[in-house]
């Protein structure tokens, strides 16, 4: 239900742009982050200024894109062992 409500809000916000939700999200997917290193380690991810069209999509929804993102190191552990045929790849 939450996804449906979000989609309706986004459709309403972007209706004047003559874009489908899928087209606008594809345009937003071009936004990226750059790793900023502090010494020998990665410190954080910096989000560059978005292009004008992307910035306008954020403004239409009253959302500000983040300027930085935390850099998290994660370790994935599993109790299940991979089959031998998958380990060889």
Essential attributes:
89 residues, alpha+beta, three-stranded antiparallel β-sheet, 4 helices, 3 strands, 38% helix
Textual characterization of the structure:
The chain is an alpha+beta fold and 89 residues long. The chain has one domain (2-72). It has four helices and three strands, in the order ααββαβα. It has helices at 2-14, 21-28, 52-60, 84-87; strands spanning 34-38, 41-46, 68-70. The protein has a three-stranded antiparallel β-sheet with strand order 1-2-3, with no helix packed on it. A hairpin with a 2-residue loop joins β1 (34-38) and β2.
| Apparent shape | flat
Spatial gap, N to C terminus: 41 Å
Alpha plus pi helix count: 4
Helical content stands at 25-40%
Q: Biggest β-sheet: count, sense, barrel? A: 3 strands, antiparallel
Instruction: Order the strands across the largest sheet as they lie in space.
Output: 1-2-3
| Total DSSP E strands | 3
Low-confidence stretches: none
Name the helix and strand elements from N-terminus to C-terminus, one letter apiece.
HHEEHEH
Q: Indicate the radius of gyration in whole angstroms.
A: 19 Å
Structure classification: alpha+beta
Brief summary:
With 89 residues, this protein is an alpha+beta fold. The chain is built from four helices and three strands.
Topology, element by element:
Blueprint: H1 2-14, H2 21-28, E1 34-38, E2 41-46, H3 52-60, E3 68-70, H4 84-87
Antiparallel strand pairs: 1-2, 2-3
